[in-house]
Design goal:
Distance between the termini of chain B: 33 Å
Oligomer: heterodimer
Strand content of chain A: 25-35%
Structural class of chain B: alpha/beta
Shape of chain A: elongated
Strand order of the largest sheet of chain B: 6-5-4-7-8-11
Order of helices and strands of chain B: HHEEHEEHEEHHEHEHEEHEH
Number of helices of chain B: 10
Radius of gyration of chain A: 42 Å
Mean pLDDT of chain B: 86
Helix content of chain B: 40-55%
Number of helices of chain A: 14
Low-confidence stretches of chain A: 82-90
Distance between the termini of chain A: 58 Å
Strand content of chain B: 15-25%
């Protein structure tokens, strides 16, 4: 239980006998006093003998204790609980390690290699364990990954697993892994339980403690130190760089979303910088060739590139930022799809589709980039509409039930639906179209001679992005009849207003697609819109910029189980993809309610995934690591302690400091300071007691007032 | 001046004391015509009061002024002054041998006795001595000469306080031996049975004597201000006691305080002039202060 760091001083314990020896010597060497009478002394002694004996005993005791305590203090005693445990047969400890394996742990800057340093810390923890101690290891990723779920005494196994472990792309959540680690020790039955958190201190990993995690709240996402009791000791080894710096391309956008062979386009990469990341160059590669390079200032937030003319097909684009300490986010992979033709389905009566057909395909159905297919509503196959870039409904309501469902599913899957009302359908016929931006409530007749100026409410919408009007002109229309809409549905907005109170064009995001609804018909019956000079460019803009914006994402985020975008060609049972390193990746089919989805498990990493055999398989998917880990903001040490709350936690900045903290914890708590405080208290008490006699009472001369003449004028009496 | 008296009183002290007087508070009977009130009211002396003239009175004592005012005859009566006899009862027991300063209590008592005796003699009054311990050791007659006083001093200086004390018994004997009213000055530490001593003082009072008690104590006896413990030996009984006075100071103060308070109360009740004398105070200072006060109170 006890050990002494300075046992040589224990000889001083003999000093405790000094008060007794002095007392005995003093008794022998008493002063002899010849006194007039012992009468009053005897009376007084008899009256106070017990009290005096007690006081003398207390004084002796205080002095003896004081010397004992001082001697002990200088001998530097240490309380060792492990030694106590060995007497009781329970000397072993259980240790749980929470190891941050997120992408930020791959930070390398000069000699600083965060991952390798963390591995050394973990190995150091294992090395300090003694035979009989047990260890569990829990990896802190997006979800906790048990490397060794339950404590094991096989330290060699643990060591080999640590040696083979590598960091992973993706974020880390410390809290669930910490709870899992504590849980693994809960039933250990051992008094010594230590939990180690090895991390780079990235604040993102600690969001759960502050209730800021995006993950769904679960029991694993709350921290209750009281739940684990006082037998747990927590150590946090924060091995990240003090001031990490990183730059990354977070996202990219191609305008327009749908590229045609002759469509000029631009690519804008959104940048982020953390810490002291300076300026650098950004490069763009297309299909493996560098095609552009730009310098990005230190405070630049985005960089734009003009896309060169690209041939029909899918092209792999890569945006690279300058190499820095965190490599996994230096590249952003994209897939840009260039179409030869844009298939658009136009359905409605002949007079309803006339102007639309002419506007989208001025040279006829087949000629031009937009491939217009006109089908009467009753002949539209209610099957798969996914092959169309857009579906235009011109006076098509009422729609048959199957077609209505097909249109809704088409929108949900990323399609663009453009709706023109007409005379065929009444307001009630639109009731079942749940994908509309608002429910039509009535048909309003207007003064057709009055010219209504069309005001762009959402001018920033991509539909209007490159829309240019002739100089001096303002879009307007003479409206004879229009639909009056009710309240806007969720995710709906007004894009164009005819007057202050008359929405002209509404938009609504439905699923991954979009619905654009006009208030007037596509023919001349309701307005002169089809005859206006804005009709054709407006319609083209809607189709080109509105269609496909979400159907074909530029990339997807890497995940352990990754769902493939719908519409990828060639997906079938038993299909495989090729990973960035040409590895074969099986594709898994999942049949759900009314839908079928495709998944791949444990994808190898970021890059371009392809499909097909041979030397040039076709790129079908761009995968990037989530940029959450790019934010290297560091959590201050004090905040780490605060977030762990009342738990007994010690934080170290490197393996050396961790070793010292652990040793101090295990070696024991020095008791010198408490003993010195005790000695101080004893000394003060002894001083008070020993001087009490001097301070006790006043002498008789002070209580009696005796004049010079001997007259006693005042006495406080007996 | 003889050596014994001069060993106790310095010339300066004597000069100062010769201007002082010790008067009895009560009527006494003396041998000579002196200044002390005599119970004999009558001829000579200071005017006392008037009485009706009766045939046969000496006409020279008729107060003519009163006759002129009242047309009635009154005789003037006078108080005759007489001399004072003072008996000094000095405790010569072993306890009086204690002294923490330059003087033991006995030496201090001798000094006081010499001073008081000198004042008495200088006033043409008489002084006598009783020296006692466990019995009356020495007795002298009362005389009003300096030579007699010096003899008394010599007897005192020759005495060695070694015996036990029996104050009460000695006082009773003294009371029995004094026939006529006088003034008794007791110089003692009174370390005897209080009841018996106060009974003895009552004896004096019953006999009409004026009693002055000078309770002589050493400051160490009063305050017990010893710095360390030790083995205490009783000077009279030889008994030993190991004690640390610091630890018993409160209880000692309580016991001694009760002892002193008892004497003070009982003396006050018996109209005995009780004075507490601390030997740390120079004897002449005490004597001067006391005589001044006594004189002031007697007016």
């Amino acid at each position: 239980m006890w050990t002494f760091l300075n046992p040589a001083f224990l000889w001083a314990l003999g000093a405790a006998a000094i008060p007794l020896v002095l007392h005995l010597l003093q008794r022998r060497q008493s002063v002899v006093v010849h006194f007039s009478t012992l009468r009053f002394l005897k009376l007084a002694q008899k009256k106070s003998s017990k009290r005096m004996k007690m006081e003398n005993f207390l004084l002796w005791l205080l002095r003896t204790l004081l010397l004992l305590v001082l001697a002990l203090a200088f001998a530097l005693p240490v309380l060792r609980s492990s030694m106590g445990s060995s007497l009781l047969g329970r000397s072993y400890r259980d240790v749980a390690i929470v190891w941050d394996v997120s992408g930020s742990m791959s930070y390398v800057s000069g000699p600083k290699n965060v991952w390798e340093e963390s591995r050394q810390v973990v190995q150091g923890i294992l090395k300090d364990l003694k035979q009989g101690d047990r260890v569990s290891i829990h990896l802190a990723a997006a979800e906790p990954v048990p490397l060794l779920a339950e404590p094991t005494a096989d330290l060699d196994l643990a060591g080999s697993m640590v040696k083979a472990q590598n960091w992973r792309t993706g974020v880390a959540r410390i809290l669930p892994a910490l709870n899992a680690a504590c849980q693994s020790l809960q039933n250990s039955g051992r008094r010594e339980r230590e939990v180690y958190i090895v991390s780079d201190g990235q604040s993102l990993s600690w969001r759960d403690f502050a209730g800021k995690s995006d993950a769904a709240p679960t029991n694993a996402a709350t921290w209750e130190p009281a739940r684990w009791g006082r037998d747990y000791t927590f150590f946090a080894a924060i091995v990240g760089a003090d001031s990490p710096a990183n730059a990354a391309a977070l996202d990219a956008e191609v305008i327009p979303h749908l590229l045609m062979e002759d469509t000029p386009a631009s690519l804008t990469a959104r940048l982020a910088r953390f810490g002291a990341a300076g300026e650098g160059s950004i490069t763009m590669q297309i299909d493996g060739h560098e095609v552009a390079r730009q310098a990005a200032a230190a405070d630049a937030t985005d960089v734009s590139f003009a896309l060169p003319p690209l041939g029909r097909g899918t092209h792999a684009v890569r945006i690279d930022t300058a190499n820095d300490a965190l490599m996994f986010d230096n590249s952003l992979h994209l897939l840009v799809r260039v179409r030869e033709r844009l298939p658009v389905l136009v359905t409605g009566p002949d007079d309803g589709v006339f102007f639309v057909k002419r506007a989208l395909a001025p040279g006829g159905e087949v000629a031009g980039a937009i491939d217009v297919k006109v089908v009467p509503p009753d002949q539209v196959q209610a099957g798969d509409l996914s092959g169309y870039a857009a579906v235009v409904l011109c006076d098509a309501f009422p729609l048959a039930g199957g077609l209505l469902l097909a249109v809704e599913q088409y929108v949900q899957n990323g399609g663009l639906v453009v709706l023109f009302p007409g005379d065929r359908g009444s307001v009630a016929d639109y009731a079942n179209a749940g994908f509309l931006p608002a429910r039509p409530v009535s048909l309003e007749n207007e003064d057709e001679t009055a010219r209504s100026l069309l005001r762009l409410v959402s001018a920033q919408d991509p539909i209007f992005a490159s829309l240019k009007f002739p100089s001096g002109s303002v879009p307007s229309a003479n409206i004879k009849r229009r639909i009056a809409w009710g309240a806007l549905e969720k995710d709906a907005e007004v894009l164009v207003m005819a007057r202050a109170d008359a929405p002209f064009l509404l938009s609504r995001k439905v699923g991954r697609g979009r619905v654009l609804a006009f208030s007037v018909s596509a023919d001349r019956g309701w307005s002169n819109l089809p005859l206006s000079p804005y009709f054709l460019p407006f319609l083209h803009q809607m189709i080109e910029f509105g269609a496909g914006s979400t159907r074909d994402p530029l990339y997807v985020w890497h995940a352990k189980e990754m769902r493939l975008p719908d519409g990828l060609p060639g997906l079938a049972e038993g299909a495989t993809l090729r990973g960035p390193g040409n590895e074969r990746i099986p594709v898994r089919q999942v049949r759900g309610e009314g839908e079928t989805s495709w998944w791949i498990d444990d994808p190898p990493g970021p890059g371009i995934y392809a499909q097909g055999e041979g030397d040039a398989p076709a790129p079908v998917l761009a995968v990037n690591v989530r940029r959450d880990e790019s934010d290297l903001s560091v959590l201050p040490v004090a905040d780490i302690e605060n977030r762990l709350g009342d738990a007994d936690v010690q934080v170290a900045r490197d393996s050396g400091e961790l070793a010292r903290l652990v040793e101090r914890h295990r070696v024991g708590k020095p008791l010198t300071e408490p003993l010195l405080w005790l000695a101080f208290a004893l000394a003060v008490t002894e001083l008070f007691f020993s001087n009490r006699a001097v301070r006790r009472g006043r002498s008789l001369s002070q209580t009696m007032v005796v004049e010079l003449s001997g007259r006693v004028t005042k006495s406080e009496g007996a | 001046m003889s050596n014994a008296l001069s060993m106790l009183l310095k010339p300066a002290e004597m000069a100062k004391l010769s201007r002082m007087a010790l008067q009895s508070r009560y009527v006494v009977e003396g041998n000579l015509a002196g200044r002390h009130r005599s119970p004999m009211i009558g001829l000579g002396g200071e005017f006392a009061d008037h009485r009706d003239y009766v045939p046969g009175d000496d006409p020279k004592f008729i107060d003519w002024k009163v006759l002129g005012r009242t047309d009635r005859y009154y005789i003037r009566r006078f108080e005759n002054e007489t001399n004072l006899r003072v008996y000094l009862a000095v405790d010569g027991s072993a306890s009086m041998q204690y002294g923490s300063g330059s003087l033991t209590k006995f030496q201090y008592a001798c000094h006081l006795a010499a001073a008081i005796g000198y004042v008495v003699v200088k006033a043409r009054d008489s002084v006598g001595l009783y020296l006692y311990d466990e019995k009356i050791h020495t007795r002298t007659a009362t005389k009003n000469s300096v030579g007699h006083l010096s003899d008394m001093c010599r007897l005192l200086l020759q005495h060695k306080p070694t015996k036990k004390t029996r104050t009460a018994s000695a006082l009773h004997q003294i009371a029995e031996s004094i026939q006529r009213r006088a003034m008794i000055v007791l110089l003692s530490d009174l370390f005897d049975e209080e009841k018996q001593v106060t009974d003895a003082l009552a004896h004096f009072r019953k006999n009409g004597h004026d009693v002055l008690v000078l309770h002589i104590l050493d400051p160490m006896e009063i305050d017990l201000s010893f710095k360390r413990g030790g083995e205490f030996i009783d000077l009279e009984t030889g008994e030993r006691l190991v004690v640390d006075p610091r630890g018993v100071a409160d209880a000692y103060r309580e016991a001694l305080g009760a002892f002193l308070d008892m004497y003070r109360r009982r003396c006050s009740e018996m109209k005995v002039d009780y004075r507490l004398v601390n030997t740390s105070e120079p004897p002449d200072v005490f004597v001067n202060a006391y005589l001044h006060e006594r004189r002031r109170l007697s007016r």
